């Protein structure tokens, strides 16, 4: 979203959920046998954790054998490379940041950063609770408000990742952070005290938690919300769950043990009854397909070379040199000539500061990001802020409104700003942007050094058009990761702004506040340069895909 255009984003609804999210996963009480966590027989433990979850908190029997393809994975050496998985993700425009966090590389080599992880726990949210004879007809569509991931990220639910019924995911906590999502991993199989603390500490980091969005109903008026839809999860939800499982296992360097929440916590008192109506066979099918797709993915060399296949896509959160590797235009693809002048704009960058000033949403609840007081005040003034968590994941927040109470007095950072403005800033509330670096027109995600803002009358450059600026080609750019790349000269009209008129374009530089292209960005009307429209369907398709949130 460009400066001065904050009107098109607004959640448009409020949640009446206070407190309810704290108790996700309805309770059940049936006591059954606990799994042999401390035994050395991994096969027996893995099978025990896959006991099917039935209605009312009952468990089915332990499978006699570990089902395929898990039988060929669990306990065997990791056979999927991070590079192949990244190529698979790039080709589908999926952002690692939405899969529990970016992969970690040191000195160009992939590092297993989840060395303690052992279990991968499936949950259903058991929410919202529907007091009606049927589930709403639209629970598997984008119109259902609980398929908005921003809604879930704003809740205090202890989990790593949420997956909505459209198969989209969002990271609440990096897989590398300890999250207590079960009674067992919090040590609650021991009474309160030193032994409970000892067990919780010993189990810290071993459990990865995934919440699958699933509403509940009551099977009869006297019971709790015990009924899930049938099937409990959509096929796309299970596809994304398979991808999350592979991503976590690759980062761990070993195949994690998939586990149903109830199977982990049984027979503890008040163990949760989730996930309901989970079709393990469908998930295993997703996993099989995914593993063969990843195996077939072709790894694109990072940097150098001009033979990058054009079929792939990139996601804004994980740009690499290979994403700026498009070949030079030819006489056939070079279209009409343009004379333009340019400015540039960036998103204010901030670092996540645990215990800092939280960014609040329209409903007055934290959006799950907090920053220093100085960063908060600058974000309120700028209207957009990109918060990085230091583990490679960036989330961008846009100004939403100035409702609610005063949060912070920014006068000490802006001593010359009028009191009325300071009072307004104090009540700034935000919303989650769709792309890692913010949202442009038509819901497109902004991509650093690729997106440009153009006149909103779309003259002379329409939204979605590709232009080539010869003076940008070969210029060094600083990527959000800190790496550098050579720009290929192509730009994409994905944004607009009230001050952008006619042949003026505004180049988006991500979180980089310095002029990325002093060669042609002169920030004055007389500082014109030459550009060309590009008529190349392969390049247009690739840049369109790169701007998909
Ligand atoms: Zn659960």
Q: Average pLDDT, to the nearest integer?
A: 87
Q: How is the biggest beta sheet arranged?
A: 6 strands, mixed, barrel
* Unreliable sequence segments: 1-31, 300-316
- Overall 3D shape: globular
Strand coverage percent: 15-25%
Structural summary, described in words:
The protein has 549 residues and is an alpha/beta fold. It has three domains: 3-295, no CATH class; 315-343 and 444-549, no CATH class; 348-436, Ribosomal Protein L25, Chain P (Beta Barrel). The chain contains ten helices and 23 strands. Strands 10-22-17-21-18-23 form a six-stranded mixed barrel. α5 packs across α7. Residues 1-31 and 300-316 have low confidence and may be disordered. The structure holds zinc ion. The site of zinc ion (ZN) has 5 residues, from loops.
Q: Keywords, please?
A:
10 helices; disordered N terminus; 3 domains; 6-stranded mixed beta barrel; 23 strands; alpha/beta; 5-stranded mixed beta sheet; single chain; 549 residues; binds zinc ion; Ribosomal Protein L25, Chain P
Structure summarized in a few sentences:
The protein has helices at 42-48, 82-92, 149-153, 194-203, 235-252, 261-265, 280-296, 373-382, 419-425, 537-546, and strands at residues 53-54, 58-59, 104-106, 109-111, 119-124, 161-163, 169-171, 207-212, 257-260, 334-345, 348-351, 357-360, 366-371, 384-388, 394-401, 429-432, 451-454, 466-468, 476-478, 484-486, 490-496, 504-508, 529-534.
